[in-house]
Amino acid sequence: MHQLDFFLGKLNERERFIIERSYGIGCMAESFDTIALRLDLGKERVRQICVAAVKKMQKYKEMIKE
Predict the structure, then answer these.
(1) Is the pTM of this model over 0.70?
(2) Residue 23 three-state SS
(3) CB 18 within 8 A of CB 46
(4) C-alpha to C-alpha distance for 13 and 19, rounded to whole angstroms
(5) Residues 11 and 57: beta-carbon distance below 8 Å
(6) Which alpha helices (DSSP H) does the chain contain, by range?
C-alpha cells in the first residue's frame, strides 16, 4: 500500500479522486458516468483524465526502476 500511496501522491487532487473512484481504492468503484456527475464534467473528460493519470503514475514507476 505504501507504493500505491506514493504514486497517488504524484497526482493532483482531481486525478487522484478519479483514480480512487474508478478503481475502488478505499471506496466502492464507480463508473465514469457517476464520477462525471460528481465533478460536473463529461464522461469522456473523466475517462481522459483517468488515462492521463495512469500514464503519469507509470512514468514515475519507470523512473524508480532505473
Answers:
(1) yes
(2) helix
(3) yes
(4) 10
(5) yes
(6) 2-8, 13-23, 32-39, 43-65
